[in-house]
Write a structure and sequence with these properties.
By secondary structure, this protein is of the alpha+beta class. Among the domains are: about 180 residues, Isoleucyl-tRNA Synthetase, Domain 1 (Orthogonal Bundle); about 160 residues, HUPs (Rossmann fold), CATH 3.40.50.620; about 220 residues, Isoleucyl-tRNA Synthetase, domain 2; about 35 residues, no CATH class; about 60 residues, Roll (Ubiquitin-like (UB roll)), CATH 3.10.20. It contains 29 helices and 31 strands. Helix 24 runs antiparallel to helix 25.
Length: about 950
């Protein structure tokens, strides 16, 4: 304890350590559940609940910098405020610990990823504890804990054993689908009775329905990382988000989640949650709902090459389709490419190759080296090659050539398009390059005429009348675009050639990773390659301890390589004998692991019931904390705070898992997070030398209006805080200089929570001084004795105090922490000027500051004679009587200049105010004996006098 009792860094450190120990020792932040805990505490059971969450942190070896805690401090302040306003608050924090960063670090250092990850978690916990965050530590966990990922695997098996019933609009157990096949209620794809299918054939049929399924599909293969990536993990320029390596298209057997089945519900659910509109828009755009039609085009001389189905939003232009384009990866190509070019094939169509097979193979290799963004770039130089086959336009029987081209992606629509060059700019450029017909089928409204030979660009035919669109079967001529769409939809459906439908940009979620450090799949394969789920009693399937955990990486530019998973090298683990109900048999385990997103899809549920070994979550507990209620029709977490960078990835995946669990009856909440708040970013100055390289910010000096590093001038700019920019500020530095409460106050006072702001170490002292003044208002710095008095506060102090209570309450409720601190500062400054501080005022001030600076608040509350923790005290409530000003300042102007200020009641009448104004000595002097021509009164705040 400081001998002078002055609030300084040393005293702050002592106070903070003592109270952190007290909170932990007494379980101050342990939150009771409705099952058991609350049943024995009627008073607590009667409280409303608040479930407050931060987005899962990933513990890096570098520990926290000052930018990391912004959201954590904010939710802690809000949680403390909610406790003090009578809520039962659940607030805790776990760790998202599987994934690529830990594995890469382990490979680089030779340290097992579990060892390094657990060490990082310990570092994070120490730093978070130092901040005084009020977490229920009993509920904390890491995704790498086997008792946690047991339930991640359990959820995967629930998804694997489910299918989406579109008629019912929900997921159902796969056993109900099997029963429908067995009874004949539902026909098998080829019409054979279910009993005549082999086990492998049945597995293939069910794989087409399961919400988790394995399939051969084009994937994003990253040789430099040795793994495949989800679309969302690939940057706009076709490189890996982590490591910045090239990404190529490759065909591999991978696990997928059928998230597309939930596309409509994922869209509709956005209307029920309280999220920033920008985040909702990003999700809507990613899901990408569009209405159009699916149309079947027979391929081959007599349709003997099968059928290509296209999705188009412009079915009204079907008569204008003069060729087709397939994505280079389309599955039909290998089956239909002929041995030789058809007679009369244009030389420009062949790409200079002797056979269609050679042309297709060469073009596929060329396309695989491009990112999706590069392939979709709006360039006039279109590339492609003729497949050697023709398709038939169903509306007029016309034979049209089928090309492959990289501007068509397999991941969008059906991977095939009907090309209408007159009315699509990409098709127009391709048609000109390959000398293909261009037919106008919607009359231009810009006067260019209907002969495309005279056009320089395509015509975007959203308006206008349909032309050149008639055959013996159907005519669209003269119809508007909407009328033509409706007519052709009906015609297609009547003849079984297609149908009006809805398509989505959203693709199924690629769920496999070729890594060691991830959740093992609870799946084994028999000798026929049929996947079998492990029974629940065999969970968790633990990740084996291995010495060689590095994924095999390759030349980053070698697109022809393929993954080799670390688990596949562990033969003793991979090949096992199991009894799955039909006697001991040999099986092979799945050697891919789940993506790190798996663990963060459901962690909100584990917080509720973290030690339940019998159920995913107790239904009563889940319903209490997350169930639907007034204002929250789909339930969810009351407040979820995190970065906007998770707008699609984590949030979309978590919503999908929650909806599956809801459909299967495991939870009562259809949405995981009701209210979402995106905090801004704390930035720091980056200093660069003449080469543009960052230099250590701590070594830069300000000199003559500029900045200097080791005698050389440097430039300054704002940027993210990070090791690569050499501008890391560790919270430990601020703890040592000022204490944790000062750091908490400064981060909350820097500006609105949702706005990015620059870090200024020199500005931290402002909040330090606020706490020092607060300390002096209660205690004598020389003796440490309490100096408050039992006197009642005067009228002015009561008004200032209750206005502060009212304002701080509203600000904390709305997460406006910076303005709440400003109001507390104003009250504190008022108290500082009082000759003697009334106890009631001092206690109110301590309670107001308690959510923001809990350590000093606990200490002062204790020294003021209270035995209990300030955490559980009631937050002050403003008395409305003191919120109305006793007097209002009225400004009196003569000729537009202020000549007097009058203190008047807010209820003063116009006549009373005019009489007071004209009698004021300052006004009389300003008039100088002149008469008054006009008096304008705006009671109670303004009087304007116009002299005669």
């Amino acid at each position: 304890m400081s001998e002078t009792h002055k609030y300084d860094a040393a005293l702050a450190a002592d106070i903070e350590a003592r109270w952190q120990d007290h909170w932990e020792r007494n379980g101050t932040y342990e939150t009771p559940n409705p099952s058991g805990d609350l049943a024995d505490d009627p008073e607590q059971a009667a409280r409303p609940k608040k479930f407050i969450m931060d987005m899962f942190p990933y513990p890096s070896g570098a520990g926290l910098h000052v930018g990391h805690p912004l959201g954590y401090i904010a939710t802690d302040v809000y949680a403390r405020f909610q406790r003090m306003t009578g809520h039962n608050v659940l607030h805790t924090l776990g760790f998202d610990a599987f994934g690529l960063p830990a594995e890469q670090y382990a490979v680089q250092t030779g340290t097992h990823p579990r060892v390094s990850t657990e060490a990082n978690i310990r570092t994070y916990k120490t730093q978070l504890r130092r901040l005084g965050l009020g977490y229920d530590q009993r509920r904390s966990f890491a995704t790498i804990d086997p008792e946690y990922y047991r339930w991640t695997q359990w959820i995967f098996l629930r998804i694997f054993n489910s299918w989406y019933d579109r008629d019912a609009g929900r997921a159902r157990p796969i056993g109900e689908l099997v029963a429908a096949f067995e009874t004949g209620e539902r026909a098998t794809p080829d019409g054979r009775p279910w009993g005549e299918l082999t086990a492998a054939e049945r597995a293939d049929v069910l794989s087409g329905y399961r919400l988790a399924y394995a399939s051969e599909a084009p994937v994003n293969w990253c040789p430099g990382l040795g793994t495949v990536l989800a679309n969302e993990e690939v940057t706009a320029d076709g490189r890996s988000e982590r490591g910045n390596f090239p990404v190529f298209k490759a065909k591999l057997r991978q696990w997928n989640m059928r998230i597309t089945a939930y596309a409509d519900r994922l869209l509709d659910g956005l209307d029920t949650v309280d999220w920033p509109e920008a985040i909702k828009l990003q999700q809507r755009n990613w899901i990408g709902r569009s209405e159009g039609a699916r149309i079947d085009f027979p391929v081959g001389e007599k349709g003997d090459g099968g059928t290509v189905t296209v999705f188009t939003t412009r079915q009204d232009t079907l008569f204008g389709a003069t060729y087709m384009v397939l994505a280079p990866e389309h599955h039909l190509i290998d089956a239909v490419v002929p041995a030789a070019w058809p007679e009369g094939t244009h030389a420009v169509w062949t790409g200079g190759h002797a056979t269609p097979a050679e042309a297709v193979a060469a073009y596929r290799k060329q396309a695989a080296a491009k990112s999706d963004v590069e392939r979709q770039a709006d360039t006039k130089e279109k590339t492609g090659v003729f497949t050697g086959v023709f398709a038939v336009n169903p509306v007029n029987g016309e034979r049209i050539p089928v090309f492959i081209a990289d501007y068509v992606l397999l991941g969008y629509g059906t991977g095939a398009i009907m090309a209408v060059p007159a009315h699509d700019s990409r098709d127009f450029a391709f048609a000109r390059a390959f000398e293909l017909p261009v037919r106008c089928v919607v009359e231009p409204t810009d006067g260019r005429g209907t002969d495309p030979a005279t056009w320089e660009e395509s015509f975007d035919a959203k308006d206008g009348r349909v032309v050149n669109s008639a055959s013996a079967e159907v005519s669209l001529d003269g119809l508007t675009v909407p009328e033509a769409k409706s007519r052709i939809n009906s015609w297609l459906e009547e003849r079984g050639l297609g149908e009006g439908t809805v398509n989505f940009r959203l693709r199924d979620w690629l769920f496999s990773r070729q890594r060691y450090w991830g959740e093992p799949f609870p799946i084994v394969y028999d000798e026929d390659g049929v996947a079998h789920p492990l029974p629940e009693e065999m969970l968790p399937l633990e990740l084996p301890e291995v010495d060689d955990y590095a994924p095999r990486t390759f030349d980053p530019d070698d697109a022809d390589t393929r993954p080799e998973t670390p688990l596949s090298r562990n033969e003793d683990w991979v090949n096992v004998t199991l009894d799955l109900g039909d006697g001991p048999r040999r099986y092979r385990r799945e050697t891919n692991t789940m993506p790190n997103w798996a663990g963060s899809c459901w962690y909100q549920l584990r917080y509720l019931d973290p030690h339940n070994s019998e159920k995913l979550v107790d239904p009563d507990i889940e319903r209490y904390w997350m169930g639907p209620r007034e204002g929250m029709p789909t339930g969810g977490v009351d407040l979820y705070v995190g970065g906007a960078e998770h707008a699609v990835l984590h949030l979309l995946y978590a919503r999908f898992w929650q909806k599956v669990l809801f459909d299967l009856g495991h939870v009562s909440s259809d949405e995981p997070y009701h209210k979402l708040f995106n905090q801004g970013m704390i930035q720091a100055y980056v200093y660069r030398d003449s080469r543009g390289f960052p230099v250590p910010a701590a070594e830069v000096e300000e000199r003559d209006g500029g900045w200097v590093h080791q005698g050389e001038p440097v430039t300054r700019e704002l940027g993210k805080i990070g090791k690569s920019l050499k501008n890391v500020i560790a919270p430990d530095e601020i703890f040592a200089a000022y204490g944790a409460d000062t750091l908490r106050l400064y981060e909350m006072a820097m500006g609105p929570l949702d706005v990015s702001r620059p870090w200024e170490t020199r500005a931290v002292v402002g909040q330090y001084r606020l706490l020092q003044r607060l300390w002096r208002n209660v205690l004598d710095e020389a003796t440490g004795e309490v100096t408050v008095v039992a006197d009642d506060p005067d009228e002015e102090t009561l008004r200032v105090t209750h206005k502060a209570i009212d304002g701080v309450t509203a600000d904390l409720e709305q997460l406006r922490f910076n303005t709440a601190i400003a109001k507390i500062t104003e009250l504190n400054n008022h108290v500082t000027k009082l000759p003697r501080v009334p106890r009631a005022t001092a206690e109110t001030l301590v309670l107001l500051v308690a959510p923001l600076a809990p350590h000093i608040a606990e200490e002062l509350w204790h020294r003021l004679g209270h035995a209990g923790s300030v955490t559980r005290e009631a937050f002050p409530v403003a008395d409305p009587a003191y919120l109305v000003d006793e007097t209002v300042t009225c400004v009196v102007q003569v000729k537009g200049k202020v000549r007097a200020r009058l203190e008047v009641p807010p209820t003063v009448s116009d006549a009373e105010l005019e009489a007071l104004a004209v009698a004021d000595p300052g006004v009389v002097a300003a008039l100088g004996g002149a008469g008054i021509r006009k008096v304008i009164v705006r009671a109670p705040k303004l009087v304007n006098i116009v002299p005669a």
